[in-house]
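Hey, quick one: can you model this chain's 3D structure?
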Amino acid sequence: MVTTSTRRRATFHSLVIAEVRHLTADAIEVTFEVPESLAHQFSYEPGQYIAIRTSLVGDASVRRSYSICQAPVEGQLRVAIKRDLGGIFSTWAISNLRAGMQLEVMSPEGSFTSQLVLDRPAHYVAIAAGSGITPVLALVESTLAGHPDNRFSLVYSNRTAMDTMFVDELADLKDRYPARLALYHVLTRERRSSDLLSGRLDAAKFREILGSLIFPTDVDEWFICGPFDLVQLCRDELAALGVDASAIRYELFTTGEPGRPTVQAGRPIELSAEEAVHTITFRLDGTTATVTSPVHSNESILNAALRVRGDVPFACAGGVCGTCRAVLTDGAVDMVENYALEPEELARGYVLTCQSIPTSDRVAVDYDA
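Sure thing. Here's the predicted structure for all 369 residues.
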């Protein structure tokens, strides 16, 4: 497992696309070949993600993060790409990606993984919406294969049956593990035979599901993946029922929050000799660099670091994935958003550099920690 303390340096490598398969009208599955020479760089835990980097016509370098949608398979890596409304990369990818093409792919990252260490079978539960199924699919497959008595319950919300990604793969898993996989499809814009599985997955419906289909006292670990509103709703309801936060893993695909700060990665900054600055020092791959940032700019540490070193690790730059995390070793910062760091990571001094604005004259972070 790639842990926080010994985590692998997130680096990009060129991978060949082996297959592109359409899942729905607006989603594809992309399979990459992983050569033996890069096997260690692309080993991963179920639930982790990769970032894809490319340059599109008329646009600068684009990075997008996608969860790996299969349990580990030697020599292979699969992700699903769903079209986002107005999404530059997803729209291009669905129309243009073909077998034989090459893309720059980042080594796997992420902590949306099982943390259980048990000497008995476990019951896992996931709540996913839309493309939130992608990391969950890998978790379902791996946990059920990991112990002959493990159980998994999945609540999967989509607008319609036609919008549902990996419906055949989930049906195959249900056939393979009929007694150990409980699968509940919730459709928000189609009527199902059960009222409980029809309509929007709101707080009332979620509470009813927890009172009739899934019982929290019988669950060892929870996984929630989807948009901000759904993730927050589920976390709040589970907390109200007394579920320990340490048993809940969550991952956001988008925050869905209006008024969030604009992503800063690559934002140009003009420096003037007369104005006050923050001095930012960062350590990466054993090398230390220093950059100054105008106080008035409210520039993130990541944005400043990228101005002097282009290989500083990041993927989403939105406070969601955690790729840009580093330990704050000196000074103080204001971390605007945090959807990635766990409480124990915060206690050890980790910050998301894409969201951290210096508030002291001098700031130092260590990406190698």
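One thing worth noting: The longest helix spans residues 133-146.
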